[in-house]
Amino acid sequence: MNDQYDVVVVGAGPGGGSAAAIVAEAGYKTLLIEREAVPRYHIGESLMPEVYWPLQRLGMLDRMREAGYVVKSSVQFVSANGKESDPFFFREHDDRECSATWQVERSKFDEMLFQRAAELGADCVDRTRLLEVHFDGDRATGVRVRDAEGKDHDITAKVVIDATGQQSFIANKLKLKQVNPELKKIAIWRYYENARRDPGENEGATIILQTTHKNSWFWFIPLSNGVTSIGCVGDRDFMLSGRGTPAEVYDEELAQCPGLLARLEDATRVGDVRATKEFSYWTTRHAGDGWVLVGDAFGFIDPVYSSGVYFALEMGVRAGDAVVAGLASGDTSAAQLGSWTEEFKAGTQWLRKLVNVFYTKEFSVGRFLRDYPEHRGNLTDLLIGRIFYDGAGNLFDDLDPALQQAVAKAKM
């Protein structure tokens, strides 16, 4: 590491890796640091098809095709009584190559981004911990970090890109983080070998399965080498209300998920149970003079629609472009570095609304689509991640009243 850079990016997940690659490719002196040793484990393995475009921008599509990841061509939903929906095949809505995506091992995927940033000219250093972001008044001016040997370094920078994930370093420092009180979730997951997958094109599908009581749901994400990621998400108070260890809670909820039990009849557990909080939160400001937030440091919605990696990549590219333009013009103000954020939030609001629909127990999306089949394409767009266009939220013109009616009817 040197002691002076144009840009320091903190955190080498999808947001930080993509931002560092964009800035370094433009010729600016860039440092990307990661607290853990790369490669490192991370959850968040299912990608939305719209990752195609930021990955294309980063020059990584051929590497993705050659990496051996499971191809994801669809998503499917299973009701509380085990009834399976028809798969949402993305190609039926759009037959271009961009309508297929991947299920990834994040250690490998994030390492690919780390290496790509290095290829494009960034100094990429792992096992390096952020200790402090330096400010001169309201302007970020650099960072203090501790390297793998325990030595501290003060590094000046014209821009700091915070990609510290749920640690949200700058947002916590400046008290910018707002938790959604209705989406305080906990995720508990483990891995299985030989879980039953569907034949044919639906083999790589992400499957979302409800439990009988609808207080939790499971994800089913097929990975390479016959391994499947299977996780349970529920309200924090429900999942942690004195019910025992995370493994015991997981097993209790699994027993209440008939749609999943059949898929695990011949499966073998691999490794230990893991758990993490999956709180939905947003930040009240996303950029300031000399700093900008990307990825989970910016905000996190919910794991149900697998939007996290796509959003992080998209934010990384957009923030990287804003930083490059700002450095070129000598303007690293909050307005310039955050110039992309309002458009980004306008698109992502539709996924936030769809998450709220999913957690409304009284409402059935399947029934809604039977009543309004004309919205199936719009819904598929949202599941693909295609949200940045006029009309992306048109289905809510009919969905919002139907949702209100279903909730009111349930209270009668």
From TrEMBL:
Any GO MF annotation of the entry: oxidoreductase activity
Keywords assigned: Oxidoreductase
Gene3D superfamilies per UniProt: FAD/NAD(P)-binding domain
Keyword Cell membrane among UniProt keywords: no
Domain FAD-binding: 5-312
EC number: 1.-.-.-
Pfam families tied to this protein: FAD_binding_3
PANTHER family from the UniProt entry: FAD-BINDING PROTEIN, SLR1998 PROTEIN
Record's protein name: FAD-dependent oxidoreductase LodB
Organism: Roseimaritima ulvae
